[in-house]
Amino acid sequence: MNRFRKILILGSNYFNICSDKVSVESLRWKDLKKLRNIEDYDSVIFDFLESPDLSGLEAGSFFTPQHCWRMMAAGGEILILGDPRTPMPTGDLGAKPFSLRTGLSFKWGSAPGTIISIASSVAAPMHRYLDTVREWEWAITGLEQSSLPNIGEELRWRYETMKLAANRLGDAIAVSFQLILEEQRFSGYGMQWVHRADYGSLTLLPRSTMRHEETLQYILQEFMSVCIAEHEPTWAATMEVPGEHALIERISSQEEILNSSMKALGELREERNAMRRVIRLLYDGGEELEKVVRTSLAELGAVVTVPDEKGKADGFVSVDVEGKNYRGVLEIKGVKGDSFSQDGLKQLSGWMHDAVETYGIEYKGIFVGNFQTKTPPFERGNPFSDNWTKTAQIRKIAAVTTQNLYDALISFKQGTLRKDDFWRSLFATDGIWDPASIAPLGLPPVPTH
Fold first, then answer.
1. CA dist 227 to 14, 80, 210, 219, 232, Å?
2. Which of 89, 207, 348, 367 is most exposed, with minimal Cβ within 10 Å?
3. How far is Cα 280 from Cα 179, in angstroms, rounded to an integer?
């Protein structure tokens, strides 16, 4: 029995088909926000036939090299129509050629042309399409690199290039990349890579002389075996039957409600994501951990600053408690192992000394550490060795785990911890901070409804 197939066309809205065998959905580029999960489709057609201007598009990460590989590894088919170099926004980095989102980096020819040579091995439907190509805007002279995951020493992914049509210099103007799996086998010539299985494909095709809609219909019918009923011609689309206008107004009204609801839903999701950011204290590392630690300390009432020069400290805190000002310098460390080395203490001691030299006042050393980041918090042990603890005590450094910081922030949000008590206790600590040093308020949690 043939499996139900889902096909997506991105860049135009000519076809929306649903039968018991196949679904074809079309989205214009400006409606890209409506796309939920590109990996949910068996085949995706990226339509650049009309050379769209995507400069204002919020493209985000809707299609990445990881998406491309995973779709093809599942047997998916990806087709790029028109110029694959079409610039697409990539957030703060500006616009980059769309082709980079496939994970393949190409060497491009320098000029367009009209000479076309179709490969003799090309199947009839593809040959008929390429027969309608009269000129080309791009040509691929080579493949610079491709990002495919490593799956071990005895297996590997590889792209097999199939040149469908070439220009006079032999550069590809229509090309397909088949994802294949190879395995190492021993032969009389030693260990060799041998073909094991074929998976999905990525195909790049130039613009043909067919009309836009006609091109898409041909590809759906001839390449993807989609049965398409006679499409409504343009002149018929302008006709209106009794009662249709009122229905159009109702549809428009519902679309406005839907758009408003989608906007509100997006805002709520963003609010939830921001609310849950504190949980990153329990598994993050590197700069992301530094950011969420500083944000958490600020929520507990501290003024948190970051040095202008990297490598000077992970941050400074200043907090007033009952008229007294406390100042501290931060070392924030995340490790996958079950303990911390003394390197962090040495670095923090240096920063404490630098702070005195720079500002003329004493700064408390505060070590904030996350450990065993792959293990649930309740299964973690004690990351501080006796020697580590003794060194922290001698150097008057207060050490706190991100789990204890998380618990303190949650208690503060629930109303069972005063922030002044937290800071007074932390700055009085030489060694490992003990949450039990703060008497609980015994207040009921803040209502959540």
1. 15, 21, 19, 11, 15
2. 89
3. 36
> Residues spanned by CATH 3.40.91.30 within the chain?
278-437
Name the residue with higher pLDDT: 1 or 307: 307
Looking at residue 445, what is its pLDDT?
39
Of the candidate CATH numbers 3.40.91.30, 3.40.50.2000, 3.30.390.30, 3.30.420.10, the domain formed by 278-437 belongs to 3.40.91.30
Those residues with Cβ within 8 angstroms of residue 140's Cβ, 6 or more apart along the chain or in another chain = 106, 107, 108, 109, 171, 172, 173, 175, 204
Vertex 53: Cα angle to 47 and 58 (nearest 5): 85
Helices (H) and strands (E) in the chain, counts: 10, 19
Alpha-carbon separation of residue 96 from 12, 61, 101, 181, 423 (angstroms): 21, 13, 9, 30, 48
pTM beyond 0.90, yes or no: no
Sequence letter at residue 304 = V
State the Cα–Cα distance between residues 104 and 106, nearest whole angstrom: 6
279-289 pLDDT, tens digit per residue, is 999 999 888 99
Give the model's pLDDT for residue 312. 80
**Confidence band, pLDDT 50/70/90 cuts, at residue 2:** low
Instruction: With H, G, I as helix, E, B as strand and everything else as coil, classify residue 56.
Output: coil
Task: Give me the residue label for tokens 């400069």.
Answer: 55
